[in-house]
């Protein structure tokens, strides 16, 4: 119920101020389990990604969003709960298995699950290599996978910016369902998981128009931070 209250409050405001747009909404099934596999450009994605869908969209978010203290912690928990985020531990290893179990449970309940295969927001607006957890979920749950591409949200609210820029219209494109039935029963094969994930990322690249980088976003962020530090040192 809280999700729909938040959406009812946000939709008129966001629509009138930012004039968001959407394409391919009809590609998302009206019922049953669905995996929305998306790029992740900005914090603004949380606001605009699911606005046009008549179904509740659940995403998996880091548990830090729900453990803060004081007023800031209360507001963080309220916001992420309101936009359908379920807290998970993203530290890897056993935590990754727990996240997959949570995702399978959500899909088993016939709900819509949003996943960002890159694992983190892009620091430079490019599309990075996807992690294979989305492929495992797709093959184990056999839920349809819809590529879900955010457009212009990086330009509107890049990393480090507290408030979105006005005059930039954010958009979202929903692609056609991707067919992975030929891989069912092969979810333990690493090569298959990589192939499925790469197919998803290719679909996102085509939908979003982003430049693709064949490395993980987290590693690229670390590398960019190191280079920036070195350049400051030379200056």
TrEMBL record:
GO terms for cellular component: plasma membrane. InterPro entries: Plipid/glycerol_acylTrfase (IPR002123). The keyword Iron-sulfur does not apply. Its EC number is 2.3.1.51. The keyword Cytoplasm does not apply. It is an enzyme of class 2 (transferase). SUPFAM superfamilies: Glycerol-3-phosphate (1)-acyltransferase (SSF69593). GO terms for molecular function: 1-acylglycerol-3-phosphate O-acyltransferase activity. Pfam families: Acyltransferase. This is 1-acyl-sn-glycerol-3-phosphate acyltransferase. Residues 34-153 form the Phospholipid/glycerol acyltransferase domain. GO terms for biological process: phosphatidic acid biosynthetic process. It comes from the Bacteria. Keywords: Acyltransferase, Transferase.
């Amino acid at each position: 119920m809280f999700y729909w209250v938040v959406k009812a409050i946000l939709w008129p405001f966001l629509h009138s101020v930012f004039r968001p747009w959407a394409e391919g909404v009809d590609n998302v099934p009206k019922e049953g389990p669905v995996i929305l596999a998306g790029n992740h450009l900005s914090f603004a994605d949380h606001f605009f990604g699911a606005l046009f869908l008549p179904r509740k969209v659940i995403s998996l978010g880091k548990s830090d969003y729900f453990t803060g203290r004081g007023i800031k912690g209360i507001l963080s928990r309220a916001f992420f709960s309101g936009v359908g985020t379920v807290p998970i531990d993203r530290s890897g290893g056993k935590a990754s298995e727990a996240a997959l179990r949570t995702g399978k449970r959500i899909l088993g309940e016939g709900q819509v699950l949003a996943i960002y295969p890159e694992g983190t927001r892009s620091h430079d607006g490019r599309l990075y290599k996807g992690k294979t957890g989305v492929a495992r979920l797709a093959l184990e749950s056999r839920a349809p996978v819809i590529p879900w591409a955010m457009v212009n949200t990086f330009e509107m609210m890049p990393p480090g910016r507290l408030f979105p820029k006005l005059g930039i219209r954010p958009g979202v494109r929903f692609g056609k369902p991707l067919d992975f039935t030929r891989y069912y029963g092969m979810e333990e094969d690493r090569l298959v998981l990589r192939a499925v994930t790469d197919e998803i990322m290719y679909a996102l690249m085509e939908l979003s128009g982003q430049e693709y980088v064949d490395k993980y976003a987290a590693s690229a962020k670390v590398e960019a931070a190191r280079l920036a530090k070195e350049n400051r040192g030379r200056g």
